[in-house]
Design brief:
mainly alpha, 10 helices, about 75% helix, elongated
Amino acid sequence: MLQPISDLFGWMMGYVYNSLAKIMAEPAQVSFFAMTILVMALISKLIMIPLMAKSTQSSQKMQELGPKVEALKKKYGYDERILQEKTQELYKSEGISAMGCSSCLPMVLQLVLIFALFAVLKDPAKYMTTTGSSFHSIAKNFFWIPDLLKRDPLSWFGLPLIYLITQVGIMFFGPMRQQQTGPNKNMSLMFQFMPVIFYFMSISWASGLLLYWASGNVLELIYRGISALFFRSKKHTAVEGGKK
């Protein structure tokens, strides 16, 4: 099912790699192959910005509904089922009944792209060069990693750890943090445990896959930080305007 996405991903990587090779000299510490993966991470995040913006807006609405949700807990806290029904009714009346899905969707799409890239890195010569022999001769290093098609030589303390830290950061600052209670609680807890599970799995993965994932996470954290500052400034302006 992911083969068409993998083929598109692989074709784009080949195009980016060949373009880089034509316009500049290859740095010693960061190969064109590594730079191609970083560019693909940037492109992926740019494509998902509208979806991330929507989930961020839903998160802001969730925060604004905080006092109302707390009031429902005090009134219906004696019965979890009734509390969930009333909370769902509140979300629906405020137009955020599907907030849980919209917040999980960016991560689901990210996983789809990760698995697509996983398939590409199994046979990169198919996409990166015209012949397999020429692909084996190109540089694939990235600072401390001599070959991005192999596991990180720093093991747990290399890219797997960077991935874990950045993914936890997204979980902490992202919209899923606002869903730790209510009807989306179980889904939220499941996604919160996923970084730890992937951390232990990733020790044997190609480090190029983790470079893509970790660098994408860094870009997303930057985006969410800028978005948080924007919404905070907008809220402050609205409050100041209300006072006047």
